[in-house]
Amino acid sequence: MGIESVLRLDCKNFQKKQWMPIYRWHQVLLFTIRVLDAILTESKQNHISEAAKEPIRLLLGLASKVAKVKKSPEKLFCILNMHRSLFDATPILTRAFDAEFVKIEVGGVVAALKDSARGMLLELKILVQTYRPQHELAQGSVLTITEFLMKYIKLLVNHTGNLDPILCQGQADDLLNIEGVNLTGRLVSGIIADLESVVQESSSYVSEGLKFLFLMNNTDFVLRQVEESDVRLMVGAQWIKKSHNNIKQYMRCYLCSSWKQVVHPLETATTSSEKRLKNSFLKIFYPTPSPLRSFESALNKVCKSQMHWKVCSPVLRVELRRSVIEYVVQAYRAYRDNLEESVSGDLEDLEPNLKSKLTDLFEG
């Protein structure tokens, strides 16, 4: 998955080549269990010879060693597969061997795998909570950790049936600090909350306008990943509603911080006729740029500064672009409608040009 490189974890001792045989461990166990089951069925015996324990002992020994390695979030799913395979194999192992062997040797490895899984999840939470992005904020796009962590979370949800027994209350309280529909739901909600904190803190490193675009992009990405997967069943309708509201709020804040200064000359120009006459008299002695010229200058400046800003979601990009166009064009129309007919009639219609210029935004 590459989650460890994203979290800047030293993973040189966990190369893919070294781990591929270990990832196949559960397949080997499954094959061995099928052979044992076939022998028991054919021989119509309740137990088989001591020699048959040897391959099982070898597999258990490898699983025990894997459970002791450095707490590596990327290897969590290997641990989960081992745990699930042993759990599924226990009924046949109990039939094939004595209860003492299963209780001590198999039970000991299962307990070690559970401890290892909890340790890996705790390491993941710590790495996420202490994560700080580097050189990722220039365009305001989705953080790499946001993309990878949502993939990771979806895999966790696929292991719900296996994770719930591992996250039994009392042994994993430091992982379950948020309410949820089940133990895995509490874990997932907590990791998402940690990610949201990372995004919020990261947003303080960029300018005001880009800050809200960045928050919009990351919140929208997380929300879409949740709504398009079973994660939505874990976080609940309330979280989904809150995220939709947050995106709307970020959009309003973006419009205000980036475009209010653009339309300001037009808005201030729509004043009473008395004030306009007074200003016209003063302009004889103190000439100032026309509101329209100031507006165009501010518009060009903002468009130029935001030309490389990016909105990743095509749906969100269209919605935000439409909001910006409405915001700017409304101010322009109000200014034009407020002018005297003789003046507004001679005024060039800038609306098509405005829409064309604003349509180029947010492509990155």
TrEMBL record:
Coiled coil where? none
Q: Give the protein name, as stated in the record.
A: Exocyst subunit Exo70 family protein
Q: Keyword check for Hydrolase, yes or no.
A: no
Pfam families reported in the protein's UniProt record? Exo70_C
> According to its record, what are the GO cellular component terms?
exocyst
What GO annotations for molecular function exist for this entry? phosphatidylinositol-4,5-bisphosphate binding
Its GO biological process terms? exocytosis; protein transport
Role description: Component of the exocyst complex.
Which SUPFAM superfamilies does UniProt cross-reference here?
Answer: Cullin repeat-like (SSF74788)
Tell me which family the UniProt entry assigns to this protein.
Belongs to the EXO70 family.
Keywords annotated in UniProt: Exocytosis, Protein transport, Transport
Q: Residue ranges of the Exocyst complex subunit Exo70 C-terminal domain?
A: 42-343
At the highest ranks, the source species' classification is: Eukaryota, Viridiplantae, Streptophyta, Embryophyta, Tracheophyta
Q: List, alphabetically, the Gene3D superfamilies matched.
A: Exocyst complex component Exo70
Q: Does the keyword Lyase apply?
A: no
